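Two proteins, back to back. First:
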Amino acid sequence: MNLKRLSTLITIFVFVFSNNLLAQSVDAILNRGEVHGNFSLDMQHYKVDSLIGANTTPDEDVLMNAFANFIYTNGDFSAGFRYESYLNALQGFPTKYKGNGIGYRFASYTNDDMTVTVGNYYEQFGNGLIFRTYEARGLGYDNVMDGIRINYKLREGLYVKGIIGKQRLYFEQGEGILRGIDGELMVNDFIGGKLKESKTKLTLGGSFISKYQADQSSQYNLPENVGAYSGRFLLRRGKISFNGEYAYKINDPSADNNFIYKDGQAFYAETTYSTKGFGLSLSAKGNDNMSYRSDRNAGLQDLQINYIPALTRQHTYNLLATLYPYATQPNGEMAFQGELVYKLKKKSFLGGKYGTGILINYSTIYNIDSTAVPSAENDSTRMGYTTNLFSIGDERYYDEINVEITKKFSKKFKGIFTYSNMMFNQAVIQGKNPKKYPNVYANIGVIDLTYKINKKHAIRAEIQGLITEQDQQDWATVVLEYSYSPHWFIAIMDQYNYGNEIEEDKIHYYFASAGYVKGANRIQLGYGRQRAGIFCIGGVCRTVPAANGLTLSITSSF
């Protein structure tokens, strides 16, 4: 046997042996740990529909958003990644999402009360007033961090976490670097003894975060390190709780505030009371000049460091959720919200045989009272305006009272009845010309009825109406859905702008869909029109263009 042949045999032997060891190692790892994940795909074929303003189709006719998460856990160790595919991104999503890539990957372990995460991670300090990274896939929004995070339990009741890294910007990273620390003290657990068993629980917290971005401006002298800090508390006793946080941000000239040097501040306060059959929550929020991004020149949804919640009810019904959703105004607003939930007792005069649920929600949002401070355009000390965070201005942005009644009439028949009276400031919320687009005052009603024919068959119907003299005037939506448990469902919907004073704009937006569900797998096929508008989640919004075509949606988890 010559040396060349011997060398080949040895190479084959080493390859087979090493691969056998690798296979055994992988098998051992998988037997000791667990792998979970999920998959989602949304695809649409577009067609021209000039009647609704869908005058063009993408060159590729078919667009797709898809992703798959794979997470491995083994004791105190976990790792995973998310593969994303935009070929190309659906209309209305940022066009910078294009192609394929790993949008999220991480590894994490815990050892002696310390947890270390490297790679990507989502995190929030307190209520998010100075720092929150999260994903809202329906908005195409993802500001995940890429760097290092350390969580440490110093002792019972005392926790601290530190972060450093950059934010995701589509398939790249933003320019700025974030550094932050957050501490939380659970007073009862920390002191221990009898206080640990007390019905009154107090938690205190504090946070600091700073962003670094080099000053490359020839016009302004820009701060390269911009810090923000906050303090918070949570007090609970039995059925009642109080939650409050105050945040302060040093001067942060940016494209959002027209490069003024005014500091920012915000507060959030909430109290809740809940008992069997009754719940009450009251909340207030104020924010002034609190746009905070890791790139001062970013726009749209990009590279937001913090999160200012919208104190409005999050609706799911078509006319309530898609026509006039509220978008948070980070440069200044004062908001208040109250919600009452009450369950009328079963077999009472008003509750009936099965009881009746009542929900009343009221929210109102105003500007903050401010006074302009004149200065030169290129003055690097200009403040823009002065204000008192707790002073309510005279311009109303949004107002809504919402009443929802849930009633079960029999074992087979139930209904949800909703009424909303809404005021919507188009000029501020949607940036429209106030002379052409006045405030909208609307009344919206929804009747949602479900009839269970038998154990497998059910029919659900929605009748929705919106009445207003402004904007596009009156709308109606009808939805019919039939389900054959546990696998099949079909639905049809028609949204009709019947009250529009422009005759050619009285358009039917029809849509039909059918789906199949088996275990954790769901497939839905639909066809029809999509109305142009605004889609919002939690006060963060994106523009949705008019479209017509065939849609396919697949979700799966394991």
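And the second protein:
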Amino acid sequence: MTMYRLVTCLLLAGCALPGGTSGSPRQLQPALQPVASLADVDSVYDVVIRHGRVLDGSGNPWILADVAISDGRFVRVGRVTGRGRREIDATGKYVSPGWIDMMDQSGSVLPRGGLAENKLRMGVTTAIGGEGGTPVAAARIPEYFATLERQGISINFGSYFSEAQARTAVLGQSSRAPNRAELDGMRAIMDTAMRAGAMGMTTALIYPPSSFAQTDELVAVAEIAAKYGGVYASHIRGEGKEVVQSVREAIEIGERAGLPVEVFHLKVAHQPGWGILMDSVRQVVEAARARNVDVAADLYVYTAGGTGLEATIPSWAFEGGRDSLRARLADPITRARLKGEVLTGSPGWWNIIEAAGGWDGVVLVNAQNPANERYRNKSIAQIAKEMGKEPPDAAWDLVMQGSARVMAVYHMMSEPDIETALRFPWTSIGSDAGAVAQVGVEDPSAFPHPRGFGNSVRVISRYVKERKVITLEEAVRKMTSWPATRMRLSDRGVIRVGAWADVTVFDLEALNDRATYEKPTELASGVEYVLVNGVLVIDRGTHTGAKPGHVLRGPGAAAPSAARGAAQ
């Protein structure tokens, strides 16, 4: 009886317990507090979210609870008798950790406009960018991060550094392998990037000059990222009939270099392999995991991908840069060779036209030229007929006439394969899309694809509610605690006392991704409130203008920012 009274007194007193995560307050409350302490009665919190169905992010069923937030972190979960300076009634709504976008493209946009409203309106509070690297050279990464912090961003943001950035700095647009001294130079650049706060090394192996890099080179540079605890993340060398061997290469790089592997936007872009190759990928990944290789993948939930129209040109034509490409395309003999390789294939080039089932599956979405805007949302096959040209000629002339990167959508995946990949416990969610500088204002450089406005919401609206592929709890786990765990963000992705208070409050019935291929910038519905680091950023579906986001520096970041970045 004496022990029972002692425990009761301790609970009522809200005693301080040892422990806590890096950078979190030392006072740690139980995750669920059905009985409020006496100390809570008169407490004033920054925000209290009341009566919501709280999904903690770990895959557990929801609990009915209040959530109190102060100083950017969760401080109570359970019954909260104290009051909040701002009270949010979440009755009938779901309260989730903020959603994490594992494959973001916002690196060059955020310095121009940090609101990231399209991301926040679909529940995303944290974005990991850098498929193509940072938008600045390795030595300028500290300045880049400092600019984001000074100007302010509304989401949390971290970035990888690309091996192609190191390669280009040393070799330019050459396709040859580096010699020993050049490779040492590339490794030194990666070292600089990792110490500046990059989260790891990326490759985009279908695009030159990244496609020029061979496996041994990638391993050698990845070893530097591994030294600092980084991740190797890859747009693999091929996502069609060669997808299995391409996943094997990514695993080999991680295994030999000694670092985790993230396969970007997992897909099977090859109709004869639909329903077959995705399970083969699963077997390869799970065999690697069984032998202690830390490998996983992310995906977006659309059957069409998107990238530059220049991806339809065999890679070797890019050696030497854009001027060299232009000269080759202007030469009738060279162009004839390239057109032949569209049919026969070309070493080191992934045939994205074949993946799309032909030119009918390749649709122009941004011509980067007012004279060619009339072709927007038309297939290259249709455009070729209107131009009176063969499809390769039409596509490549559009590329050369663009003032910037000409963009296209490629219809090349199957719905059943998306569903299969969603069921893998080791997949997370990444949009492969960036924030927009300003919602409602067309950005001439933007890539219009619905995944930039609906991807995270679509995971739930289509694959939980409509198709019942996964449970709501599993969908939330894939967008919260699992990606946070993958990226070693120990204080994010969960609703837990002491963790950073990134929160998405949504109405499950109203949740709907409204963006389509025809109208790709329609904002999602059903996300009612979003908090980033305890600050309300979306309030009843409207952006507040607040910019409380943190720059997320990788584990190699030099002191004094290293400790802060790791905790964030």
